[in-house]
Design a protein that fits this description.
Mean pLDDT: 97
Radius of gyration: 22 Å
CATH superfamily of the largest domain: Type I PLP-dependent aspartate aminotransferase-like (Major domain)
CATH topology of the largest domain: Aspartate Aminotransferase, domain 2
CATH architecture of the largest domain: 3-Layer(aba) Sandwich
Bound molecules: ligand F0G
Distance between the termini: 30 Å
Number of helices: 18
Number of strands: 16
Strand order of the largest sheet: 4-10-9-8-7
Shape: globular
Largest sheet: 5 strands, mixed
Length: about 475
């Protein structure tokens, strides 16, 4: 992606790709959106594509694929064992991370399942920069506990801190001394820290964490699902390492970590996952779990076609023109919303543009799910599907008490090379309109609440008739236009 400045002085991110396969979109009018969100019980996970204009739910498995990826898929070798496709994927992973061994898995959470199954026991403590929903669920399921060690600044939505994903090394040392290294099966570092707004860690911080872990003989695990974003930010924000190539930065980090796992729905721009490592002992500890839960060691539950696409996608993840597209579109959207007074997470991170619902709808208490309500309101105002990343995405405590999240965010994901700038500008316009009308937005309450990962399937109801009122305000300003 290039940043070009027009003759008028305006700077925009310019696409360095062209579209060769297009998907027709629906543009449902306001009344259809009102009906659809009600049928989806106010949970955007329950909406159907036919009712969505721009799907910004996630970047998972929905990045645009390249011509090179598609052509590679045609040569997939579907042999159950010893497939040539696995050899090619193994080579691509070795090239990327400089690691000796690859264990395939069907997606990122399958790796989290295996790591928790293999290493977490009741009483285990797993320090990390910040949790991800599935990573935490697998750890707690095995009786372990997560300790989040980001700096307080990481949880301040508006900030100038460039590396909000960093671990506080002093707190990490204190925690190790407190609980004992023998109770810490691994330290988990998440690239492009998802739940705090796609925020990166610095390479220096990651190396410091690994050095401390080594001194205590504790394993280190990198969740590299969002590595391409984190890599871009190291390259562009961390002066000490910006002279290094993307590959050199990746190798430097990988050499310090014991285990790397990734969702190839994100890293690799296709659908799958895997774990890689240099230590044969670790490989042997984990491989039985792959054959038990995923599939044979040369496919691990993935389609061989996807494996071919991942192999090419991993190579493409080293191309700065490709990996800059997400962050630069996100930076544009964040910058334009900020100019219009809309509260957004800053600095702009990876993954998507994050609205700060705690401020946007500061009249809604956390127990009435402000981020969930704002996600519904964004859909009503624009037909754009975002994702709640706040209290609804938390799990209740064992005693049933609501666990209020550190931040209340609405994530508008920017899958790579999927949207055009005019679509992003439409999003900016409708969200700015919604910000003007924000006092109309009310809260939500659960009417059906699953005990586990309630945000996926939970059903909710609006508190009052605010959705109808918002639709009326929309019609007053835009008529029956979209
Ligand atoms: N780690 C991170 C940082 C993730 O963002 C995800 C998935 C996973 C692990 C799990 O990988 O989905 O392949 O099983 N994030 C998706 C999202 C679901 O929408 O942010 P998976």
């Amino acid at each position: 992606m290039a940043n070009v400045t027009f003759f008028s002085g305006e700077t925009i991110p310019l696409e360095l790709h062209k579209v060769r396969i297009a998907q027709k979109l629906q543009f449902p009018p306001i009344r259809q959106r009102l009906q659809a969100i009600s049928e989806a019980c106010n949970n955007t996970f329950l909406l159907e594509t036919k009712d969505i204009f721009l799907d910004m739910l996630t970047d998972s498995g929905v990045n645009a694929m390249s011509d090179e990826q598609l052509s590679a898929m045609m040569r997939a070798d579907d042999s159950y064992a010893g497939s040539a496709t696995f050899t090619r994927l193994g080579d691509a992973v070795r090239h990327l991370f400089n690691t000796a061994f690859l264990l395939p898995a069907h997606q990122g959470r399958a790796c989290e399942h295996i790591l928790a199954q293999a290493y977490v026991k009741p009483g285990s403590v797993i320090p990390m920069n910040y949790h991800f929903t599935t990573a935490k669920a697998h750890i707690t399921r095995m009786g372990g506990r997560v300790e989040e060690l980001v700096y307080p600044e990481a949880l301040r939505p508006e900030s100038r801190e460039l590396f909000k994903g960093n671990i506080d090394i002093l707190r990490l040392r204190a925690l190790i001394n407190d609980v004992g290294p023998e109770n810490i099966p691994f330290i988990r570092l998440e690239a492009g820290t998802n739940l705090i707004g796609g925020q990166p860690f610095s390479l220096q911080n990651a190396l410091d964490v690994c050095a401390l872990a080594r001194a205590f003989k504790i394993r280190t695990v990198l969740d590299a699902s969002l590595w391409q974003d984190n890599l871009y930010f190291i390259k562009t924000r961390e002066e000490a390492f910006s002279h290094m190539s993307t590959k050199e930065i990746t190798h430097t980090l990988a050499a310090a970590m014991d285990i790397i796992y990734f969702s190839a729905r994100k890293l690799g721009f296709a659908r799958g996952g895997g774990m890689c490592m240099n230590n044969k002992g670790i490989y042997d500890e984990l491989k039985g779990h792959v054959t038990m839960f995923e599939g044979f060691l040369t496919y691990g539950g993935m389609s061989v076609r996807e494996m071919e696409a991942i192999a090419v996608g991993l190579e493409e993840s080293m191309d700065e023109d490709i990996i800059s597209q997400g962050p630069q579109f996100i930076a544009y959207m964040v910058g334009e919303l900020k100019k219009r007074g809309v509260p957004v997470v800053t600095p702009a991170g990876g993954l998507g543009c994050h609205l700060n619902a705690a401020k946007f709808v500061d009249h809604i208490p956390q127990t009435a799910y402000p981020a969930g309500a704002l996600t519904v309101a964004v859909y009503l105002a624009s037909g754009i599907r975002g994702m709640e990343r706040g209290t609804m995405s938390e799990q209740r405590d064992p005693d049933g008490a609501e666990r209020l999240s550190d931040m209340e965010l609405v994530r508008l994901a920017m899958p790579r090379r999927v949207f055009t700038l005019s679509q992003v500008r439409y999003a900016i316009d409708r969200i700015s309109w919604l910000h003007e009308k924000r006092r109309v937005i009310g809260g939500l309450k659960f009417v059906e609440e699953p005990a586990n990962m309630r945000f996926f399937f939970g059903k909710l109801q609006p508190l009052g008739d605010w959705e109808e009122q918002l639709a009326g305000a929309f019609e007053a300003d835009f008529g029956d236009a979209q």
